[in-house]
Amino acid sequence: MDTSPVAPHRMDPAGGCPHADNARLLVRGAVTPVVLPGEVAGMAVLGHEALKEFLAHPEVAKGAEHFTALREGRIAAGWPLTTFATVRGMTTADGEDHRRLRSLVSKAFTARRVEQLRPRIDELTAGLLDDLHRAAEGGGGVADLRRHFALPLPMGVIGELLGVDAEYQDRLHHLSNQVVATDIGPEQAVAANRELVAVLSAVASARAEEPGDDLTSALIAARDEEGDRLSQEELIGTLVLMIIAGHETTLNLITNAVRALCGHRDQLDLVTKGEASWADVVEETLRWDAPVSYFPFRYPVRDLTLDGTVIPKGTPVLAGYSAAGRDRAAHGPDADRFDVTRPGRPGAARHLSLGHGAHYCLGAPLARLESIIALERLFTRFPDLDLAVSETELSRHSSFVGNSVRALPVRPGTSRG
Asked: How many domains does the chain divide into?
């Protein structure tokens, strides 16, 4: 038996498709040491059951004070993953602080509030399908679905929820991309974070002067009326998290679902024939090609043994959602196959791509609703829609956090309506 230590997996800052590496790593085990950008030692949890246990473990924390290397000053200024560790908000809070911050935001994402958004999502979707059609007409039959459809839909919805004027939305998307990128230099990283904070501070100032029926106005009221409930730093940190999580995940989800359906026309046929639902498409895409590949960070508050591997106290740990989604131990020998009938099978393992435990994605119902509406309307309007280039020609995200492509050129074909 080989007892030699496992060589750490070096996370590629340039990103790329994660699935080949994931498959190789899963053969080695459910937990693996990794090297993060800047030669920072970390770990990644890849296996479905191990990740499920880890995400809900009572001795795993999110607060940056538990990140040993950061606390000891061993993380260089401008480290591209700094924001994930240090932004003040729900994703970096524990215990009572987490419950306090989550309660301030949760009212905007109740099932009732999300359902009330359906008419607006329908309206936005219809307008964006018109835009996609016009873009294709002006582009020789080809248009970038990501730019003209998959991006402006969730950005428009989260923008309205937060009270962010349209003039800010393109810039916020660009800055969000820079924040989640893992291949940019220290100066770029610092500049992007500073500008993102500056733009959102301007948004908050505008809402303070003219409050509306939006989440930012409600957060400002909580800050001003009950100062112990929300600090200024937490206000801006919450807006940072809401903007990034509120559109990047759904953008990647819609993009990846369209790619999957175009590459598996038999699965699209099952949906159009009523043998599977658009909700099934969304759930299978979340499993098969998770919109977030490796999410930073969690830290054991003591040395933690998980699936036979010790994760030392204070180690930054990545949650390997894309790997867990194709873990054969949980999803069967055909885990690599895109199958829209899988979510409805008795005993099918539920994916973890929107999290698990206390930090389960608060915006999950909204992301699902937006994606279901978007996909149904898209393929109803353009039943012959297909990729304009091969899958291998698509340029990938320059990040191992977000999992998708930079652009999605499609041929919409004949429009029905």
From this structure: 1
Backbone angles phi, psi at 33, to 5 degrees: -70, 145
* Residue 45 backbone phi and psi in degrees, to 5: -105, 120
Strand intervals (E) in 49-112: 60-61
Q: What is the DSSP letter of 350?
A: P
User: For residue 348, how many other CB atoms are within 10 A of its CB?
Assistant: 17
DSSP state at residue 360? -
Checking phi first, is residue 67 left (phi over 0); if not, alpha (psi -120 to 50) or beta?
beta
The verdict on residue 65 lying in a domain is yes
For the chain, what is the largest distance between any 2 Cα atoms, rounded to a whole number of angstroms?
68
- Residue-level pLDDT, tens digit, the chain, 417 residues: 344 567 899 999 999 999 999 999 999 999 999 999 999 999 999 999 999 999 999 999 999 999 999 999 999 989 999 999 999 999 999 999 999 999 988 888 888 888 999 999 999 999 999 999 999 999 999 999 999 999 999 999 999 999 988 888 888 888 888 888 888 888 898 898 899 999 999 999 999 999 998 889 988 888 777 656 788 888 898 998 888 888 899 999 999 999 999 999 999 999 999 999 999 999 999 999 999 999 999 999 999 999 999 999 999 999 999 999 999 999 999 999 999 999 878 878 899 999 999 999 999 999 999 999 999 999 999 999 999 999 999 999 889 999 999 999 999 999 887
Q: Is residue 123 part of a domain?
A: yes
Gyration radius from the chain CA atoms: 21
Q: Is the residue at 416 inside a domain?
A: no
Distance CA 18, CA 336 (A): 13
Q: Is residue 417 part of a domain?
A: no
Q: Which two tokens stand for residue 206?
A: 């505008």
Q: Which pair of tokens denotes residue 395?
A: 């340029």
- Identify the bridge partners of residue 299 per DSSP, sorted by sequence position: 61
Q: Identify the domain containing residue 236 by its residue range.
A: 9-411
Q: How many C-beta atoms lie closer than 10 Å to residue 414's C-beta?
A: 9
